[in-house]
Specification:
By secondary structure, the chain is of the alpha+beta class. Helices cover 30% and strands 20% of the residues. Among the domains are: 91 residues, Membrane-bound Lytic Murein Transglycosylase D, Chain A; 90 residues, Immunoglobulin-like (Sandwich); 90 residues, no CATH class; 111 residues, no CATH class.
Length: 548
C-alpha cells in the first residue's frame, strides 16, 4: 500500500523516508525520480505504507536506538540475461551466524533482518562443483535495502538423446559448424548514418543466450551458446545488450571507447520499473497479515530492472524518451549541423533552405536562408528569433511534447526511438566537451573515462557553472544555492557542518562523489583489468585547468 505526501520546506528524501519507515532509494524508485537528491516544495510523492507511522512509547532509550538501527535486506540473484536464478543455494553470514537458503522462482531469498547499521552481510553461493564461493559483501543503507546480484553466467537446458538407426559404412560429411558470433564482432566499424535506419532496436548482433544446435566434425550434437563476454570490444551491457549496436556506433562517431558511452547513457537514461505485490508477514508469528475481510495484506514493491526505457515520459515536464530530452533542447539538437538528429531531419526534408525577400528602406534583397518545412508546405525561417526558438513556442508547440504541425511532431517523437536518444545524448556530451576545449581547458589530455565524467559534469552544472567549478572560482554563496537545490536545505546544512561550515567545500565534495559513483566505466567491461586509470572528478578538474 502507498500513501501520498507533499514535500514541505526543509524536507529531504532521507527525512521523508525516516518518517515513513522506508529508504530514499525506495521512494525514488516508487516515484521514478531520476535524481535521488532533487525534490522541490509542493511536490507530491507516493510513499510506502498506508500512512505515516505513529511513534509508540518505548520503555527505554536503548530500545529506541536499537529500533532505529534495525533494517531489512532484500536480495535477488539474476543471471547474465537479468533473469532470476532459481534453486540457487545461498549462505548468508551475519553477526557470527550463518543462514542457508535456496532461491525461489523469482531468484529471491527470504528478507534478512539486520540489527545494527554497522553490520554487513557476507553472501556465498554454491558452485556447480558443490563448493562455496564468496560473491559479495552487502552493507544495508536504510530501513529497507534491495540488492540485485548478477551472475556472469547462463544456464541452458539441454536434452541428451541416443543415436538411432544403423551407422553407415562411410560416415557422411557433417555440416560445417557455424562460427560463433561474438557480440561486438559484427558491429559496423564505420559511423551509422541517420539515413540508414529508422527502427528502435539493433538487428546485426546476436543476443546473449541465443542457442544454435549444430554438430561437431565427428557428427556429435553440439549446442553453441552466444555469450556477451569475452568480446573484441571488451564491452558488457548485460540487461541493456539490446542497445549494443547503437552504443558502439555512437562511440565510433564520438571517437571514444563504448564503455564511456555506456556509462554516460546509464547516468542519463530513465529505466523500466516493475511492480510486485508482496504479502506482509507478521514478524512474531511468521504468518501473512490478513485484513478485515480475511484477505492477505500486501505491499507494492517497485523493482528497478535497470533496463533503459525508450518510452519514458516525465509527468512534470516535456522530457521524453530514454535520455529525457526536453522539447526545446531536442529541437535545438535537430537544428545543430553535424548531429545524428540533424542528419535525419535533413533526410526527411524537414530542414532545408528557401529563398526569402528582405525589404530595406529603399531596396529589396533576395537571399537563401535555412528553414524548417511545415507539413502544409510553408516554412519557418530565421527572424528576430531563431528557428529553434520559434518552433519551441506557440503556435508550433501546443503543449508538452505536442505540436500543431505534423513534421515537428514526427521530429519530437524520434525521442522515443532508442537509436536517436542514444546518439543525441552522445552528441550533446561531445558539444559540452568541445565548449570546454574552446574555453582552453585541456580536455584532450584526458582518457575516455575521464572525459565521460567531465561531459556529465557539464551537463549537470551548465556551461557557466561548470567553468567556475573546474577553476574552483565559484563563490560560497552560489555553491550553497546549488547544494541546497540538489540535496535539500537540511541535508546541505549537515554536509556543510561536516566540512567546517564551508558550503563551497561541501558542494565540491558532494558533486565529486556523486559523479564518481555515476560514471564508472569498469561496470561495462568484461575484463576490468584492461580499464584505463580514471581519476576522481576533483583531480581531473585540477589537471585540465589552463594554468595547471
Amino acid at each position: 500500500m502507498t500513501s501520498s505526501y507533499t514535500v514541505q520546506r526543509g524536507d529531504t528524501l532521507t527525512k521523508i523516508a525516516k518518517l515513513h519507515d522506508s529508504t530514499p532509494q525506495a521512494i525514488a524508485e516508487l516515484n521514478q525520480l531520476s535524481d535521488i537528491n532533487l525534490i522541490h516544495i509542493g511536490q507530491r510523492l507516493q510513499v510506502p505504507g498506508a500512512s505515516a507511522p505513529v511513534p509508540e512509547p518505548r520503555p527505554a532509550h536503548h530500545n529506541q536506538e536499537q529500533a532505529l538501527q534495525e533494517r531489512t535486506l532484500f536480495m535477488q540473484f539474476v543471471d547474465v540475461l537479468n533473469k532470476p536464478i532459481k534453486d540457487l543455494k545461498v549462505k548468508l553470514h551475519l553477526d557470527g551466524e550463518i543462514a542457508e537458503h535456496v532461491t525461489d522462482s523469482k531468484g529471491e531469498v527470504p528478507p534478512v533482518d539486520v540489527k545494527s547499521k554497522s553490520s554487513t552481510v557476507k553472501v556465498e553461493v554454491e558452485t556447480v562443483s558443490g563448493k562455496s564461493k564468496h560473491i559479495a559483501t552487502v552493507s544495508p543503507r536504510g530501513a529497507n535495502t534491495y540488492v540485485r546480484l548478477h551472475s556472469p553466467k547462463l544456464a541452458v537446458q539441454s536434452q541428451l538423446r541416443t543415436h538411432e538407426g544403423t551407422p553407415s559404412a562411410a560416415a557422411p560429411t557433417p555440416p560445417a559448424a557455424p562460427t560463433p558470433v561474438l557480440p561486438g564482432a559484427t558491429a559496423s566499424a564505420s559511423p551509422v548514418t541517420a539515413a540508414d535506419s529508422s527502427t528502435s532496436k539493433p538487428k546485426t548482433t546476436v543476443p546473449p543466450g541465443a542457442v544454435t544446435d549444430t554438430r561437431s566434425p565427428a557428427g556429435h550434437p553440439v549446442q553453441e551458446v552466444t555469450m556477451e563476454c569475452p568480446n573484441k570490444l571488451n564491452l558488457k551491457l548485460m540487461q541493456n545488450f539490446a542497445y549494443h549496436d547503437y552504443i558502439v556506433a555512437a562511440a565510433t562517431r564520438a571517437a571514444m571507447i563504448p564503455q564511456a558511452i555506456a556509462a554516460i547513457m546509464n547516468a542519463e537514461a530513465a529505466t523500466i520499473f516493475t511492480i510486485e505485490e508482496i504479502p506482509v508477514i507478521n514478524k512474531k508469528t511468521k504468518e501473512p497479515v490478513l485484513d478485515k475481510k480475511g484477505k492477505p495484506v500486501v505491499k507494492k514493491k517497485k523493482i528497478n530492472t535497470f533496463v533503459w526505457d525508450p518510452n519514458s515520459a516525465s509527468p512534470n515536464s516535456s522530457a521524453r524518451g530514454m535520455t529525457q530530452f526536453l522539447d526545446a533542447t531536442w529541437i535545438e539538437m535537430a537544428l545543430t549541423d553535424g548531429t545524428f538528429l540533424n542528419a535525419r531531419a535533413k533526410k526527411e526534408g524537414w530542414l532545408t533552405r528557401t529563398t526569402v525577400t528582405i525589404k530595406h528602406k529603399k531596396s529589396e534583397e533576395t537571399k537563401e536562408v535555412p528553414a524548417f518545412k511545415l507539413e502544409n508546405g510553408t516554412f519557418v525561417t530565421p527572424g528576430k528569433i531563431s528557428i529553434a526558438r520559434q518552433l519551441s513556442s506557440k503556435p508550433h508547440l501546443t503543449g508538452r511534447a505536442t505540436s500543431s504541425d505534423g513534421n515537428l511532431q514526427k521530429l519530437l517523437d524520434l525521442r522515443l526511438q532508442a537509436e536517436y536518444a542514444i546518439h543525441t545524448a552522445v552528441d550533446y556530451a561531445m558539444q559540452n566537451l568541445a565548449m570546454l576545449t574552446k574555453a582552453k581547458f585541456k580536455i584532450d589530455t584526458l582518457n575516455d573515462g575521464e572525459k565521460a565524467k567531465v561531459a556529465y559534469l557539464a551537463h549537470h552544472l551548465g556551461p557557466g557553472d561548470v567553468k567556475e567549478f573546474i577553476n574552483d572560482t565559484m563563490t560560497a554563496e552560489h555553491a550553497e544555492y546549488l547544494l541546497k537545490a540538489q540535496v535539500g536545505k537540511v541535508n546541505a546544512a549537515e554536509r556543510a557542518e561536516e566540512n567546517k561550515n564551508n558550503y563551497l567545500t561541501a558542494h565540491r565534495t558532494w558533486l565529486n562523489g556523486f559523479i564518481n559513483d555515476r560514471i564508472t566505466i569498469i561496470k561495462y567491461m568484461c575484463d576490468a583489468t584492461k580499464a584505463p586509470t580514471v581519476r576522481e572528478l576533483l583531480d581531473i578538474t585540477v589537471a585540465i585547468r589552463e594554468k595547471a
